[in-house]
Amino acid sequence: MNHKITYCSRCLYNSEHPLNITFNKNQICSGCEIHEEKDTIDWNERFVKLKKIVNGYKQKNKLSYDCIVPISGGQDSFFIVDVVKKRLGLNPLLVSYNTHYNTLSGLRNLALIRTIFDCDMIQKIVQPQKIKRINLCTLKNLGSMYWHVLAGRTVFPVQVAVNLNIPLIIWGVHQGCDQVGMFSHYDEVEMTRKYRKEHDLMGFEAEDLINNFCDITEQDIDEFKYPSNFLISKVGVRGIYLSNYIRWDSKKQHEEMLKKYNYETVKQIRTADSYNNIDCMFYNGIHDYIKLKKCGYSKITDHVNREIRLKKLSREKGIEIVKEYQTQKTDDFEPFFIFNNISEKYFKKIIHKFINKKFWTLNNGKWQLKWEPNKNKKKNIIENARLNSKFDFNFINNKKIKKENNSPYLLHKSWIENEK
Ligand SMILES: [Zn+2]
């Protein structure tokens, strides 16, 4: 079966990428091809275009919000709010979906962001019992413990837009464009319900969880329902992505923002990137463990590929880094099992169903990963795909504690208690 997998000659993605990836005759992936646009686009011109778009939404009344900006205590939130507030001069309403998977660093960063930018923020906290029921359902049927996070994050801003009559939503990076080149930057692709369903939600909207395969009730999924097309067009809701107008370089952006705002970065397991996803207790743990089982690659590959394409890392060094991180042991199983009231045995039995046998083989009762990015690759095909890179893969860890307070109480309550 293994011969069916193709690896990119430039980055390290394989043909099993869940967002769909294609390869040209030189086995360069669609993500790498579209990424080249970043070096040819006139980004100054694009920023002028962005200003023009948003100016149409500026409110005359300073008390009203000009737009909605979805944020978290991680990802590119500081950069996005900085652009929206400081460079575009907008008055945003910040909205945040509480994932229940909070880390203390993530909560502190979220508090910092709304304070330093002097912005109002709305947070959605769905009751934990619903989250647990949805988790059991999506874990069992989709092999995902992250469906509710993606569903909540992508729908809550749209609900607020409709309810408060704020038509413009400003997102950061478009993953389909940045990772796999699903769209060109020139397409200026905007938020759609279709993309959310097909890619963020693995084909299952909230309503699809009912009747299909779970004991989920209408009340459980009510908070995750996308507003009707009628309401969306009545308000004129649109969501734009900054990555179509700004040359997206997450690491560089973080380093600029860290100088300005000094928020927390944290050394994580299974990736060298200490900037992204530090707000989530499980993203680089159990979630990443499942991703590697299902897709044959993990988060460190996403992070390495991003830097290979930005010419900060060679493919060879990238391979070394992926090997070092991708199979590191996770340390967050226990709080996840306690929160969802499941046993390790039950969890492993479920995940077993989703193991991608193109990458994993059973050897003496143990699953072994076959990760062979150079298999069947002639040297010249890699040489021809090569970008001229300068090594720059060091991340700042301003918080020395590796991980703190992984306790289930934080999962239930979503707030900080007795912090010294
Ligand atoms: Zn590639």
What does this structure look like?
With 420 residues, the protein is mainly alpha-helical. It has a single domain (1-420), classed as Rossmann fold (3-Layer(aba) Sandwich). The protein contains 19 helices and 7 strands. It has helices at 30-35, 43-55, 77-87, 104-116, 128-142, 147-164, 175-180, 193-200, 206-209, 218-221, 229-235, 250-261, 286-295, 299-309, 315-325, 333-340, 344-354, 379-385, 408-413; strands at 67-70, 92-97, 120-124, 168-171, 238-241, 360-363, 366-369. A 3-stranded parallel β-sheet has the order 1-2-3. Strands 4-5 form a two-stranded parallel ribbon. Strand 2 (92-97), helix 4 (104-116) and strand 3 form a beta-alpha-beta unit. Helix 14 packs antiparallel against helix 15 (315-325). The model has no long low-confidence stretch (mean pLDDT 93). The structure holds zinc ion (ZN). Zinc ion is lined by residues 8, 10-11, 13, 28-29, 31-32.
Task: Briefly characterize the structure.
The chain is mainly α and 420 residues long. It contains 19 helices and 7 strands.
Per the CATH scheme, the topology name is Rossmann fold
Write out the distinct hetero groups bound to the structure.
Answer: zinc ion
Q: Approximately how much helix is present in the residues? A: 40-55%
Question: How many domains is the backbone divided into?
Answer: 1
Radius of gyration: 21 Å
On the 0-100 scale, what is the average pLDDT?
Answer: 93
H/I helix tally: 19
Order of helices and strands: HHEHEHEHHEHHHHHEHHHHHHEEHH
CATH architecture: 3-Layer(aba) Sandwich
Helix/strand-derived category reads: mainly alpha
Write down how many β-strands occur, each being a DSSP E stretch of 2 or more residues: 7
Largest sheet: 3 strands, parallel
Parts with pLDDT < 50 across at least 5 consecutive residues = none
**CATH top level label:** Alpha Beta
- What topology, given as strand order, has the largest sheet? 1-2-3
The fraction of residues assigned to DSSP E strands is: 5-15%
Shape: globular
